[in-house]
């Protein structure tokens, strides 16, 4: 990988204004450098053994020999760990059916990893921007229950509302938080002090 290519990638990631934008830009750049059928962001609240994806140290590139999730990511996988501590583990996992990742591709991943790690850290340390539109009390309540791991059905039963109403509250909360899934939405709400 040339210095110009790295500079182009860094420029693409530098345009990201939110963590969600960073994830999208990084996913695109990884797929460009390492052609793949799937690019996943793996994030856990503590390091767990997800096959061989999450390793003990940051800055680790690994060609996975046993596919995780019964080959859900493809038969051949490459993981790029950007953070692994006792508190959290974060990695990019690239997967495809064929061909296997080559030594050159693993080397390119090694060049790409410090750039991904630097941007991951910059977003992790950046204070979150306040919401343009605050969450309602009910949206906050539903999101807090989601953060505890409850399903929409369980939340509905606890609050005496339908699954569909729970889904609507989550949809509105996600939109206000500028996120698209439970993990990122609860993380952002926690960072903003909305959730304890």
Task: Summarize model confidence as the mean pLDDT.
Answer: 79
Rg, rounded, reads 18 Å
**Topology as a string of helices (H) and strands (E):** HHEEEEHHHHH
- Report the principal-axis shape: elongated
List the helices and strands and how they pair.
Elements: H1 3-14, H2 19-33, E1 38-44, E2 60-64, E3 76-84, E4 89-96, H3 103-125, H4 137-147, H5 152-159, H6 163-177, H7 182-191
Antiparallel strand pairs: 1-4, 2-3, 3-4
Keywords:
196 residues; alpha+beta; elongated; 4-stranded antiparallel β-sheet
Compose a concise summary of this entry.
By secondary structure, the protein is α+β, with helices and mostly antiparallel strands.
Structure description:
There is one protein chain. With 196 residues, this protein is α+β, with helices and mostly antiparallel strands. The protein has 7 helices and 4 strands; from the N terminus they run ααββββααααα. A hairpin with a 4-residue loop joins β3 (76-84) and β4 (89-96). α1 packs parallel to α3 (103-125) and α5 packs across α6 (163-177). Mean pLDDT is 79; it is low at 47-57.
């Amino acid at each position: 990988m040339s210095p110009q290519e790295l500079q182009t990638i860094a420029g693409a990631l530098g345009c990201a204004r939110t963590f969600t934008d960073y994830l999208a830009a990084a996913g695109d750049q990884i797929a460009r450098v390492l052609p793949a059928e799937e690019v996943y962001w793996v994030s856990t609240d503590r390091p767990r053994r997800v096959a061989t994806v999450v390793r003990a140290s940051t800055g680790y590139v690994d060609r996975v020999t046993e596919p995780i999730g019964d080959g859900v990511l493809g038969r051949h996988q490459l993981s790029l760990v950007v953070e692994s501590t006792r508190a959290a583990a974060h990695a990019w996992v690239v997967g495809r059916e064929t061909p296997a990742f080559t030594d050159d591709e693993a080397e390119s991943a090694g060049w790409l990893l410090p750039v991904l790690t630097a941007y991951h850290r910059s977003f992790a340390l950046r204070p979150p921007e306040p919401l343009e539109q605050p969450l309602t009390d009910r949206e906050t309540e539903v999101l807090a229950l989601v953060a505890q791991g409850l399903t929409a059905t369980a939340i509905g039963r606890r609050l005496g509302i339908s699954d569909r109403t729970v889904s609507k509250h989550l949809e509105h909360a996600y939109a206000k938080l500028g996120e698209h899934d439970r993990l990122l939405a609860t993380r952002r709400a926690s960072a903003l002090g909305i959730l304890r």
